[in-house]
Design goal:
The complex is a heterodimer of chains A (154) and B (272). Chain A is of the alpha+beta class. Chain A has helices at 22-29, 85-92, 102-115, 121-127, 138-149, and strands at 2-7, 10-15, 48-51, 54-57, 70-72. In chain A, strands 2-1-5-3-4 form a five-stranded mixed sheet, with helices on one face. In chain B, 33% of the residues lie in helices and 25% in strands. The chains are: A alpha+beta (154), B alpha+beta (272).
Chain lengths: 154, 272
Amino acid sequence: MKITVTVNGTSHESDVEPRTLLVHYVRETLGLTGTNVGCDTSSCGACSLHVNGEAVKSCTMLAVQADGTEILTIEGLAQNGEMHPMQKAFMENHGLQCGYCTPGMVMAATSFLKENPSPTEREVRIGLEGNLCRCTGYHNIVQAVLACAAGATK
Amino acid sequence: MIPAAFDYVRAGSAEEAIRLIGEHGDDAKFLAGGHSLLPLMKLRLAQPSVLVDIGRISDLSYIRDAGDHIAIGALTRHMDLETSPVLAEHVPLLAHAAGYVGDPQVRHRGTIGGSIAHSDPASDLPATTLALGATYIAQGPNGTREIAAGDFFQGFLETALAADEMLTEIRVPKMQGAGWNFQKFNRRAQDWAIVGVAAWRRNGDSGVGLVNMGSTPILAISVSNALSQGASVADAAQLAAEDAEPQSDLNASPEYRVHLAKVLVRRALEAC
């Protein structure tokens, strides 16, 4: 089936099998491998990206369902070589260890701050409940999101 | 994990969806947000030959004040329930419970109609709407009919919907200031409830829905009957599992579920 999607500002027209998952389309057809596959069961959030501005788990969405949408992946966050404030906040607060969950964490966190721009620490923890960090590095991830919300990035 | 191959068709309206599902027969399934169906398809526990995508029927996404009840389009997403000012005012229990479904990413895609039509007893919204005395509207080739929530859930993942019917609207009575509470007991954030309780209470009336306490969502009628006859919350809560037949799984034995139900119903009613 033919689909047209705008990914990180660029329009793509592709012919996909209906059973193609969005995460596989993004990684394998478009070559954007920043979006990771973790649990593959919509639990871990490693595959989080934005569809029409909202975080979704791309392992649990068909590429055909994304036809006509605007998709943002981790590769599209930086603008003109300048990291997104959330990316900077993760770097400055050591919000990553092995880095596997990081793209999904950053995409979930940016979506979350759009819905709740001034969260408490507890709200950040609940807001990121769909993303697992197997290094258990949650403390600094939460600090990074709070720093970004406060505009405290260099 | 990749689903088995299927054909994909997209419906632009409820009428078209019902026509398409009728044309493609028993192996066809409706696809809404996909957050119940796609995980099953990836595990190949479901292998429909045709998916009729109803996710773009935007006129089935709404939350409207309809006088004595709130009318909710079947394709309304959990996130829209959670943040709806209309629900917050008139059916706060449902808005609150919707915020416990999965996680934010799941709530951006999953729909109330999909959750109810899938009728997983471990899901939060079937039991919550059952407790609230909701009515579900089913549309088929010959028009629409109303199905009381109490008549809808017929067995594990089985509902009163005919193969060519689509759930189009959920009507939930206004809570009229009733006290309410939602309890969800699980081991990890974002998990299914091991046991969940949705409860409301106003004067002698009450409704108590149980999550994951049997093959269907359960209405704890014995608890409400005891309360209406003047029983204390502590005594009524002892009847929490009278109408349930909890199963065993990796998380809990039936006996533990019965214990949890009694404790959670008591906590819920005490907070109502």
